[in-house]
Structures are given as structure tokens and as C-alpha cells.
Protein 1
Amino acid sequence: MLKRPQYIAIVLVVLLALALLGQSERVTSRIRLAVGGLFLPLFGVANSAQALVDRGTASILPRAELLRQMDELQLENRRLRLQGIQWEEAARENARLREALLLPRQVPWRLRMARVVGRDPANWWKNVRINLGSRDGITNNMPVIAAEGLVGRVSETGYTHSSVVLLGDPACRVSVLVEETRDHGVIAPSDAGAVDNTIVDLKFLSRNSILKPGQRVVTSGLGNLFPKGIVVGQIADARSVQFGLYTEARVSLAARLNTLEEVWVIAQ
Amino acid sequence: MNSLNTILVLATAYLGVFLESTFTGVRNLLGAQPDILPGLVAYASLTSGLGLGTLTAVAGGLWLDCLSANPPGISILPLFAVGLVIERYRGLILRDQAYAQFLTGLGASAAVPAFTLLLLLNASRNVLIGWDSLWQWLVMTLIGGALTPCWFLFFGWLLRTLSYEAMPDPTARSNREIKRGR
């Protein structure tokens, strides 16, 4: 038999939980921002500590190593400049042809670099927290990429921080196409489970799709959320499902989601 | 409810939730992020009773949910339920023994994620679970259980360090009291 204070505690806690869970998406988001704001000082301290470590590491790097890195970067810079000249010409040609065919012009991406400052403490979501928010012009659903490929999209925006839902989370489905065969499909969480962050499933492919391991998968641009052509990964293997009605494939992600440190938000 | 103990437990929950979000060493090593809150609630319920257990469950659960994609408030109920059960049987648990602390923490750390997932599934949330979630559950349970006796040691040491030691009063000996009576 429970005692009176225990009954009172049960009633109060259940009422509080129901009140919180019964709120609309907008109110929930505000509650999350307000309570999450309590952690801003700690995020600030962690950021400063990281900057201090970076500065310390930079100061103890030997001069020879710095010179070697500088040489490498200069070489890469020259190579990229040459590529840039070539691509500028291709872009001009592309623009001319688009004009001739009356196609809309492609808008260049505006990228904002963000640092990953936290991960979802719960094991059943794939989310990270970045240090850009609405004050930096970030809004919900903006695509997020790493140097290797697509990472996910912004799912919630605070004033100084935002949440990014990663590929492989049930809330992040992306329309993609296989570059070589032009087969369309949707990236969904892997059936293999929650631990592996390197593999996702490619679903709803037509049954006639003939896929081979190693073929590149890129965003299709359908749905207007992700720009067309961002690398998602490579086909790992494919199989026929639903008694041969569909084809499904496993895609090995290009971006390493476990070790994300910096990402870029595409502010279109 | 000792106010110093309350402050220490809540501060630990606050820092712990933040570290769960930022420190990913265990997650990268074992594939699962351990949760410190069930063990803390077990400690609070065993040492201070329902008040601190409830406070830790409510504050810790809300903080955790707000740094996560969980709907805010979903972690409060499992943590509170575990705290209530432990507090209910507090008299039967040998709370000074490390193995009893470990087993209590183990049970709490096993029950909380399972109950939270059950609530999320009941709320029709599309959560990421598969067969390897069992591995994650096992890691969370074992690490949560192993941390619980550490909380007792940690808070015991902190309370001894931060609070005044009660000094026996040499002038007030019981055998020197003047008994008044007829």
C-alpha cells in the first residue's frame, strides 16, 4: 500500500509529464529551446576548451611539419585553381545551354561551416547538435553536408545551436538516384540495426534495376529539399524483395557519421 | 532531504546529461551511449527518499529530453517509476552493501530504457531499433549498474568533504545530567 506523499508525487509527476507530452510541436520546440538554453554555458566552456587545445596543438607543431603542410596546401591550391578555371568554363557553357533551352538557372550553394558540438544522448535517434542557429540564418530542413558527402538536414533551430538529423534516422529520408543507371529510390534506416552508422538501405527501387557494388548514389533533387547531385554513398549490395516486386540495396555512406567534427549547412 | 545532497545530485545530473551529449568515447567504443540518470535516481531514492528521487527524475529527464530528439517529458515517467519502486522497497534493500547498490542500479538501468522505448512506441514515434538494440540495452544496463556503487562512494566522499563533521560535546555527558523528579 502506498503512502499519501507517494500518491501526491505520482499525481504531480504524471500530470507534469502529460502536460509536457500533450503540447503542440511549436510549444514543444520552445520548451526544448528554453531548457536546452541551460546548457549554453557548458557548450561555451567546451568550445573554448576545444579552441585552447587547438591553439596549444598548433603552437607545439614543429616548423618543418608546418612548412611541409604549407607546401602540400599550396600544391593543392594550384591544382584546385586549374580545376576552377576548367569548371568556370563548363559552368558558362552550362548557363548558355540552359538559357538556350529555357531551363531555370542553377543557384550556387551558400555554405556555412558549423562545428559538431554534441550528439543525441539517446541511442534510438541519430542526431547531432551544431553551433549555428537562427542568428546565423539557419532554418529548418536546410541540407547538411561534409567534405565526403551528404550528412542529413537541420531538424530544429535554436538561436545559437541547431539539431541535425542524420542519414539513417527514421526522420531523414532522402530521394536519391544511382548515378550510372539513373534508378530512383529512397534512403531509409538500415534493417541491420541501430549501431552501424556506415550503412543505410536504399528502398523502392524498380524491380528491373540492375545494381552493382561500387556504383555511386547521389541525391535526386526530388522533393526540393536536397539539391541534386550531392554524393550519398556507394552501393554495397542489392537484393530482390517482396517476391521480386522491388529491389533493395544497401548503401555504404560516403560521410563518416561517427567522426563528424565540422559540417557545412547549405543555405540555399 | 539534505540540501547539500540535493544540490550535489542535481549538479551531477546536469553535468552528466551534458557529458552524455558531448563525450562520445564509450559510444564509439561499444556502440551505445550509457545513461547515468537511472543510477542517480536509484542513489537518490535509496539515500534521501522520494523527494530527491522525484526531483532528480523530473529535472534529469527533462534535461535529457531537451538535448535529445525525445519528446520533452518522455523520460520523466520511467525515471520516476523506478525511483518510486526503489523508495517503496527501501527498507528491504541493503543499501550500504556494494552488491545491493550494483543490483539496484542494474535493475534501474535495465528498466528505464525499456520503459522509455515502450512509451515512444506507444506514442507512435518511429524509433531506430533493431536486434543490435539488445546489445545497446546490455551495455547501458551493465554500465549503469556498475556506476551506481560509484555514486554512493562519490557522494559519500563529497558530503564528508563539504559538510561539517559533528563534534561530540564533551560537557553534555548523559551520566552527568541532573535528573529532576520527586
Protein 2
Amino acid sequence: MAATLAEYLRENRPGGFRAAPQYFPSGDYLTYFVSDERCHAKRLDDIVTVYLANDTGRLVGCKVKGVRHVLDQAGAFGVGVDGGDDIRLGLFFFAAAAPDRADRGPVMKWYDMLKELADVTVDRKQLTAAL
Amino acid sequence: MAIPIHLLPIGEGRLPDGSTAPFFIDRRELDAVRDNGPAWKYDDARFIEEAVTDPDAIFEGLRRPNQADSLCYSVRPTRDPDTEEDPYGCGAPPVFGQVFLAFVSLGQMGYVVFDWEWRTDSADEPGHPENWRDDFLRRVWQRP
């Protein structure tokens, strides 16, 4: 078994690509990529970061930060996270986009584009550490 | 103290006060990126070591829930660890005009890198991501 990150990377090659949300408990965030093309990140706010393709600038994914906090707040206000259903990304996008702040003008187009990803669901089992 | 098996050592990273400390990454989360992609993100984990050992800037406060004390290390990589031995051809050089960021939280064993990404380089402060003044609470170290 690899003893360092450098060894691990030498011994393990990437295994493929799966367009599905992934939750990372150590940083309490999830990512969702629709494609595996190279991209860079653009932070929209304290909840959402978008990933934009380097070649075309199109939206290829997003990161939701503070998952535990958003779910806690949603549960506290009875916004449908207590059932057994999987959780839509739209819940997180709503939490981020709802405040109407004047300084958001230039980035509002990205919130509109995130609507395309709103129906993607996160497997509740993945979020066990956050719920 | 024994290192938990799920923590993979990265090396001795720089701290804002100039000292160093052991940095780690969660092996289980690295496994997930390896298995599910994107492949570029998995491959670019090779730049994490330079980011935490020889950064251009360190920021504190990620302006997100429960991450007020976390750090962000920013670097324009100067070397590609895969250049000399890259049998799989994945060693694409860093993209011009972008900086590599590694996000770090303080865990029980030391500092843990929990995410990494590229952002657009600042036009007036090389090695910093654009909008760093808005995206982070404060800059706590920069390369002299």
C-alpha cells in the first residue's frame, strides 16, 4: 500500500468517469460533473462554485459547499429533507440563489444555468455523514 | 502517534507563521476521485505537494459554512512531477493563466487537504486567484 500521496498516484491510475454527485465528508462538500473535460472553478457564493470548461467556457459541473449546514437549515425549517427520498441539487442552488444582492449582477447568469442541473439527485446514502 | 490508515501523508507543508507541519489527504476520498473522475482532477492531485510546500500565497477563511479557520494554498506550479516518468501520457502541463488551489483544514493529526482545483490567475497579483479579496477572509502569507 502506498505510503505517500506521490506513491499512491504512481501506483493508481484513474478508473473512469461517472456523472454522479459525490460527497466528500472531510470538507463537507459535494461535486457534480457532467463531463470530464478540463475546467476551472469560479466561486459564485459561500454555497456554490461552478466549473467552466477551459476550451469553451460552458458549465460542466458544480460544487456545493457546506452541505451539512444547508441540510440542517432545510430540516429545521421543514423543507423536505426528512423523508426517504434522495435530495435534489436544486435545494442547494435555491439556498444559494435566493438572496437578491445587488453585487451579484455579473454572476447571475450562472445561477440561471444551474437550473439545468437542479433535478439531479444525491443518493441519501452518500450523505449519511451530513444528515 | 500512529497515523490513521485513511490518512495519506503528503509531506511537510508550510504554515502561515513560517513553520512546517505534516499534511495529509484522505485516502478514501482520493479513491472516490480515482474511481469516478474526472480523470484530470485525479491526475492533478500531483500538484498538491508543491501547493502546500512551496505556495505563492496562503489564505485563511474560506467564506463558507464551518470553514472560517480553513486555509487555501495557491500556486502557479513550476514543475510537473509526471514530466520525467509519465507512461500513461496524463502529464498535461498546467494551463497558462490559471493557479492551482489546495483547500486545507486542521484535523486531529495535522493539516488535511480536502479539495483542489484550478482558478483564473489574478491579473495584478500572479499566483493569486482572481477575486481572492472577496473569496477569502484574509491573506496570511505570500511569497516574498
